[in-house]
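Need residues for this backbone.
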């Protein structure tokens, strides 16, 4: 059942929000022992939220567009009074004193907030193996990773524990796990969804977005959380984009670009599914245009200088003084060293050190400054490309989900998982991953659609079309 149908059923008393909540808790109990998608779950809070919605309906009030719909939340989004850890020991047990804007909007829409989901520590990773509280497993094949960093949110939807969830995408952290888990995942245009209350990794790249079982559900959730927020200085002063009105409009007449570099190094099975998607788009009336753009392959190197540089600044606040865990030392300096040594995992430490080095005197221009020039080049390249096409179609990831431990000893091979998703983050553009069949081992394969800034209505039209063509 779609989330629109669920909400309508709750509003008309065909079912009750409490019943939906109990069904959700039963599904989590049945599967999460094996998957470990959730870091925090409070059954009584979930039921209390549901009872509140039912009470509003009984009183003749309209509880909102998502009445009774369960939504799981990535554990880097602040929720008042609920443990919010970023999957890091340095924030273990910390409870924010406020709600993120997206949490407020979900509450206002009548959603039931269902727990906090696992992630790579501080959203730094591509497999959810970097969580301080244990890895999440892929719901399709538990011997494989669910992707990252939003692996818990993707797995919770992929395992049918919840219909929708929220994640964050800094370099592909929604789209890559969506592809691995066989669900829909959207990285919106930078600034369309508030970052207020999203614990920062790389502030110029981070963006909150939805996971869903269907394109329609992703579109509805996106409309609920999007829109201007004066609490976020990077929020665009626009209304929430309308993606649902023309979502069934099809792709006839669209110009869709094929960038060979956004399939470079893909496995044969991934490439075959992307080609099938291209064929379906062409047969449905879209014009496909080949647009080589080798500059986009520079995005991986630029990202792994810009993102760690911003992380080294953002994570300086975790010093054992103001909040979070503290390890005592002989003096303040020793306390800070001991706190950060014990509190941060290996990948977070690696990126802090890399970012600090890139920003240090004598190296700033050669590394961080040069990376920002590459970022500008990528933005200019996309501008050129979108003169000739409306959207781009390509692979979300080079491979299907990989086995646990297969990339942990080689960070570069892990980073390569995001090579097709990173360019959109550097440019601030939207992109969506849509499940489009499976590989030889039955593992999901995602096709990625990319568009220029604020092109979400067109992206959702094309994504909905591909969803209907998935059986080809």
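Answer:
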């Amino acid at each position: 059942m779609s989330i629109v149908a669920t909400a309508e059923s709750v509003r008309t008393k065909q079912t009750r929000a409490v019943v939906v909540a109990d069904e959700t808790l039963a599904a989590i109990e049945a599967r999460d022992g094996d998957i470990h998608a959730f870091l925090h779950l409070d059954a009584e809070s979930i039921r209390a939220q549901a009872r509140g919605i039912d009470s509003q309906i009984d009183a003749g009030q309209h509880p909102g567009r998502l009445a009774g719909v369960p939504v799981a939340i990535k554990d880097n989004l602040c929720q008042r009074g609920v443990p919010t850890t970023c999957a890091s020991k340095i924030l273990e047990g910390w409870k924010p004193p406020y709600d993120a804007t997206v949490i407020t909007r979900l509450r206002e829409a009548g959603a039931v907030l269902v727990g906090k989901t696992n992630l790579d520590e501080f959203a730094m990773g591509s497999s959810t193996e970097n969580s301080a509280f244990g890895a999440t497993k892929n719901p399709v094949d538990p011997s494989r990773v669910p992707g990252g960093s939003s692996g818990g949110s993707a797995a919770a939807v992929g395992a049918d524990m919840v219909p929708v969830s929220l994640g964050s995408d800094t370099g592909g952290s929604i789209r890559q796990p969506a592809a691995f888990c066989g669900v829909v995942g959207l990285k919106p245009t930078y600034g369309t969804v508030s970052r207020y209350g999203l614990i920062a990794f790389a502030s110029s790249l981070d963006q909150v977005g939805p996971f869903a079982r269907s394109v329609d559900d992703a579109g509805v959730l996106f409309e609920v959380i999007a829109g201007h927020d004066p609490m976020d200085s990077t929020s665009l002063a626009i209304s929430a984009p309308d993606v649902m009105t023309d979502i069934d409009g099809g792709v006839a007449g669209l110009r869709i670009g094929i960038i060979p570099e956004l399939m470079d190094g893909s496995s044969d099975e991934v490439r075959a599914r992307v080609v099938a998607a291209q064929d379906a788009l062409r047969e449905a009336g879209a014009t496909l245009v080949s647009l080589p753009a080798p500059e986009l392959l520079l995005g991986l190197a630029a990202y792994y200088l810009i993102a760690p540089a911003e992380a080294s600044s953002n994570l300086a606040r975790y010093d054992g003084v103001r909040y979070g865990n503290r390890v005592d030392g002989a003096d303040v300096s020793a306390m800070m060293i001991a706190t950060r040594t014990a509190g941060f995992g290996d990948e977070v430490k690696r990126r802090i050190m890399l970012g600090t080095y890139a920003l240090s005197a004598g190296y700033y221009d050669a590394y961080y400054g040069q990376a920002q020039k590459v970022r500008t080049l990528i933005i200019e390249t996309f501008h050129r490309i979108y003169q000739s096409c409306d959207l781009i179609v390509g692979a979300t990831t080079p491979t299907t989900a990989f086995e646990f431990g297969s990339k942990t000893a080689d960070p570069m091979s892990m980073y390569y998982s995001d090579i097709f998703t990173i360019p959109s983050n550097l440019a601030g553009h939207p992109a969506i991953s849509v499940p489009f069949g499976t590989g030889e081992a039955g593992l999901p394969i995602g096709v990625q659609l990319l568009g220029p800034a604020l092109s979400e209505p067109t992206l959702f039209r094309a994504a909905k079309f591909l969803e209907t063509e998935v059986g080809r």
